[in-house]
Specification:
By secondary structure, the protein is α+β, with helices and mostly antiparallel strands. 36% of the residues lie in helices and 17% in strands.
Length: 310
């Protein structure tokens, strides 16, 4: 739907809450405490009381919207704007669109919505998958390569469409180090067993065959060959990621929030060819209704910051 259709469809708070009810209880009311379905009654405008145990709940309890003081219509507008911004969304942009007085509120909302961008039931990558790691952080003197310090290490897995040499879905996750435990663990969590996994010759991938993967190694033939030539597809995605972080988020992110930015990038990359933006809005809102709540204090816990490579 267009933005005009969106504003007409969700013009009132009642329309928004009815839509959320359908997303949360697609087969009818189910008590989140006792599991009773069917019998309930409504208390006021926002509460539902179970006819069996008497537990009262709202349609947003246990979701990212829990305890919000803002109208759901405002939240809907935020999610619509985020899903229609192909290049990514910034807190300053969201603050401007929603006319929020506080930048911190806009920033917190973005992080809450990012938590809903990871579907816990998503399918693993399969077929042919390129895997490598990259450091997110500024260049500095001292130790380099896989032993670099003061940078965040991110593992990246990318599907390659066989026969067409096209990029498929991607997965990204921060890892503590480049050990067998960290890298093979990332691959086991994100790639279907039996898939062909292509890596460079790093020893951290040595046990992939033991875990049921068809491991193909593309080592460098000499020092003159760049990383981009060794695993060109996955390094293209890494380059796009760093460009996105620099452009949309001004080149600096807090280390404890980096995974949230990676999740947003993965969400957008895997839906880059989606024509129906209204469907993206629906999918993200649906996921938000099944994502546990989080608080501003949880997001504002630390001050460490990574400066990105320019």
């Amino acid at each position: 739907m267009s933005f005009d259709e969106f504003t007409m469809r969700f013009a009132t708070e009642e329309q928004c809450r009815e839509y959320l009810y359908q997303l949360r209880f697609p087969k009818g009311f189910v008590c989140p405490k006792c599991g009773q379905d069917g019998k309930y009654w409504q208390v006021g405008d926002t509460l539902y009381e179970c006819g069996k145990c008497g537990h009262q709940t709202s349609v947003i309890a246990g979701t990212i919207f829990q305890d919000t003081r803002k109208p759901m219509k405002t939240w809907f507008t935020a999610i619509w704007w985020i899903t229609t911004m192909k290049s990514g969304a910034s807190a300053m942009g969201l603050q401007r669109v929603l006319a929020l007085k506080s930048y911190t509120t806009a920033w917190t909302w973005l992080h809450k919505i990012r938590t809903a961008m990871v579907n816990p039931k998503r399918l693993r990558l399969e077929g042919t998958v390129e895997v490598d790691e990259t450091y997110i952080g500024g260049e500095m003197e001292g130790k380099r390569g896989r032993g670099s310090e003061n940078k965040a290490l991110v593992a990246v897995a990318l599907e390659i469409k066989e026969g067409r040499n096209q990029l498929g879905r991607v997965r990204m996750h921060m890892v503590s180090d480049a050990s067998v435990k960290s890298l093979c663990g990332f691959i086991k969590d994100n790639v279907q067993t039996g898939s062909t996994v292509i890596t460079d010759g790093w020893k951290g991938y040595n046990q992939l065959s033991d875990y049921g993967f068809n491991h193909v190694i593309h080592p460098k033939f000499d020092d003159s060959e760049s990383d981009d030539e060794t695993l060109s597809h996955v390094h293209l995605v890494v380059s796009l990621l760093k460009r996105w972080l620099l452009g949309t988020h001004q080149g600096a992110v807090r280390e404890d929030h980096l995974q949230a930015y990676l999740d947003e990038y993965v969400f957008r990359f895997n839906r880059r060819k989606a024509y129906n933006r209204g469907l993206l809005f629906y999918r993200l809102l649906e996921s938000a209704m099944h994502t546990p709540p989080s608080t501003q204090d949880e997001f504002l816990g630390h001050e460490s910051c990574i400066t990105l490579v320019k």
